[in-house]
Specification:
The chain is an alpha/beta fold. The mean pLDDT is 92. It is built from six helices and seven strands, in the order βαβββαββαβααα. The chain starts with 6 loop residues before the first strand and ends with a helix. Keywords: Cytoplasm, Hydrolase, RNA-binding, tRNA-binding. It is found in: Cytoplasm. GO terms for molecular function: peptidyl-tRNA hydrolase activity.
Length: 197
């Protein structure tokens, strides 16, 4: 069993301009999770983002969507986690992942930021990387045979087919998160690996 997750952070960029872009996959997942627990996001200026909360195992669990833009995500994570005294090991960050194909979802703890600006800032502000990540595959322009730079790629909508694959992955993750919240990493990984029904 693992430390219970008390803060779930979906990474993305605020505003309608970015809503449907690949870089906002973390926001998409955060919205699904808030729906599942019947909680609404409220803008919390003290935490530099939108926050939803629910109860799990007698504790408050927070879902955070930073409103700082991706490369300053750590500012929001630091503010909320320090205020509520949530340790690094009890944080789950959900983010888009270039190194996984659309539809692939992987869970990991710790490690480098692999050039992801949101993770880079969280590492810096939190003074470490020993938190959980849910990596949502969006593919890489090279592996998808696209003549597009990475920065341009993540700030555009996926193709219709890739979008469907990403959404399928999100729905698998939706079923796996409760197991992770309950501290059962093995069950969460099994559910993430299950093919679409």
């Amino acid at each position: 069993m693992i430390e219970p997750i008390r803060l779930i952070v979906g990474l993305g960029n605020p505003g309608p301009k970015y809503e449907t872009t690949r870089h906002n996959a973390g926001f998409w997942m955060a919205d699904l999770l808030a729906d599942d627990v019947k909680s609404n996001f409220l803008l919390e200026n003290n935490f530099f983002g939108e926050v939803a909360k629910f109860r799990q195992g007698g504790e408050n669990v927070f879902i955070l969507k930073p409103a700082t833009f991706m490369n300053l995500s750590g500012k929001a994570v630091q503010a909320l986690s320090h205020f509520y005294k949530i340790p690094l090991e009890s944080i789950l960050v959900i983010h888009d992942e270039l190194d996984l194909m659309p539809g692939q979802i992987k869970l990991k703890k710790g490690g480098g930021h692999a050039g992801h600006n949101g993770l880079r800032d969280i590492h810096s502000k939190m003074g470490g990387s020993n938190y959980w990540r849910l990596r949502i595959g969006i593919g890489h322009p090279r592996t998808l045979n696209l003549q597009q730079g990475v920065a341009d790629f993540v700030l555009h909508m996926p193709s219709k087919d890739d979008h469907e694959l990403i959404v399928d992955g999100l729905y698998r993750a939706r079923h796996a998160i409760p197991a992770l919240l309950a501290g059962d990493k093995d069950k969460a990984n099994r559910l993430l690996a299950e093919p679409k029904a």
